Amino acid sequence: MPLYILSFDIEDWFHIFHPAYENNPELWEKLSGRVEENTGWVLDFLSKHHLKATFFCLGWVAEKYPTLIKTIHREGHEVAAHSFLHNKVKNLGPESFYADTKRVINILEEITGNKVISYRAPGFSMDKTTHWAFEILHGLGIENDSSFKSGMYMGFPKKIPNEPFILKGEGFSIREFPTRTFNLLGSHQIYSGSGYFRLYPYHFVKKMFKSFDYEMAYFHPRDFDNHIHKYLNGHLLVSLRYRIGTNRSRSNIDQFVTDFEFRTLQNAIEIFDWNNAKIYDLLNGDNNQAG
Ligand SMILES: [Zn+2]
Fold this sequence. Notes:
The protein has a single domain (3-281), classed as Alpha-Beta Barrel (TIM Barrel). The chain is globular and about 50 Å long. Helix content is 37%, strand content 17%. Strands 1, 2, 3, 10 and 11 form a five-stranded parallel sheet that branches. A five-stranded mixed sheet has the order 4-5-7-6-12, with helices on one face. Strands 8-9 form a two-stranded antiparallel ribbon. By secondary structure, it is an alpha/beta fold. The structure holds zinc ion.
């Protein structure tokens, strides 16, 4: 059975990697947020299709809009963590990463009353140099991660598998759900979410999904906001990057969930055959069941 997971990273339009906005919570406070309205659209859309998804929520958003997180949880979606301040893990040392992750887990658990067991790093910022982060995640009760891109080395001796696998550290393991990439002129490109989904023609994404049994689709609320350019004014290239395809993203995702059967991460965990899963050693990248 194909395993197509649907996920959303719940953050605002200004949680992007750009020097004007990055790591600047004082500025974020002053900007007009769009995350409530755009996530509202996402929730209505999922309800219309009788679909459940996994929501990786930013702690900063949860603190500002607790009712939004409560609604996501109440509507039966999985609430997972996407850091508190949206810093790349590579830019944080172990101590700051621990503090940031603990903070997001605490606030999400306080709001929903449920344990948070899944995590996604901002900007796919995990690789071999951040192997220590997985031990911290494990210590904080995280059992599942979705921060890797597949098909790439990420500093390890072997490529990241193209399917869910087990990351093994010293005395612990975490299930990893990578986002698939394809090779475009020698560089690894994502196609299953966000700006890539907006940029590529839908028939290309559909063709890719049909070719594989495992896919991780991921979106942001801003991917469906066709007024986003009004907010990013003054940054022409950034504005173009986040605006592109927003005029057709709502109809494209509508077709997308009609063409494919999507599920939450939790549901995928239940049906995936973990006995035959690849095991990837965090320190040396050994892939003892690699095919
Ligand atoms: Zn993010």
